[in-house]
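Our preliminary data section would be incomplete without showing what the modeling component actually yields. Below, a chain of 331 amino acids is followed by its predicted structure, encoded as tokens that our downstream tools consume directly.
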Amino acid sequence: MLSVKLPKLLNINQVPKVFHEESIMSGYRHPRSTAYDCIFSVFQMTNETLNIWTHFLPTWYFLWKLFALLYRMDFWNEAYTWPITVYMLSCCIYPFTSSCAHTFSSMSTRARHICFFFDYAAVSLYSLGSAIAYSSYIFPVRWVNSTFHNYFVPVAVFNAIISTALSCYSRFPEIERPKLSKAVRIVAFALPYLFDSIPVFFRLFICSGEDCTHNESIPDHYKHVTFAFLTGFLFATHLPERLAPGCFDYIGHSHQLFHIGAIIGTHFQMEALIIDMNLRRDWLLVNSPLPSLSNTVGAVGVCLIFSLLIILIFSLALYWKPDDFNKEKET
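Predicted structure:
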């Protein structure tokens, strides 16, 4: 009979500081795990296990939604469907990348940083996918074809690139200046979300009158915004584990709740976008320019190229500064 020996889990004082998570006292994997150990740990209860599954399983749900949508749409011949397709792809990429990052982040210090560099780039790509879909489907009538509308996607591309750069940089002062690191990372994630959501916020909280595009998508937009701010709160505060260190090491800590909130928020965002896309189709086809390859696939391509370049630069920096950045972390 075959038996498998589970890797030993470590306490917080047994792993380098770079692996520490605030108020998480136990359940750490070995900081020099092999790839096999990392994959096997997916089926072992560690402090990362639910971080992995809370994004891995939703990836398949979003893939199912994408294929179901593609089955009903004529993607190749109908430019109107390109933005929702780009958005849906980004919804599949960011949770899958996150689950991979959490799976393999215990292989080494450098591997941990590089894994999360890709994680941050995927989140930025998702923010751009959201902006592309928002630009095509959710702008209120009075803003369609305005200057802000015309420059919305190019600015979103810039924001996504800056977000990737800032979030990757935030890992470097993590040990010496943790508050600065946290603040930079929060700004990196908040910047694209707040900009992308301007037309949503305007529709929900400011606009009044017949040209405000109040329709059946509004309740789902409200739900998405609610979960977006909830996830931001959880990410920034590290609640509930800060109130009881060690009690939420395996189940119920803020990063798990952050993942769940993000997925639920994405679900409501997706539903709202599909409703707006369908209900406003006839009006938008007449009054708004058709989406082009340049502001859909092209925008994503530019973002990908710059994000990969940023990841390469910061990854090389891990090797350029072995003494002041890696020595303490790998002892």
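The mean pLDDT is 94. The radius of gyration is 21 Å. Preliminary results of this kind motivate Aim 1 of the renewal.
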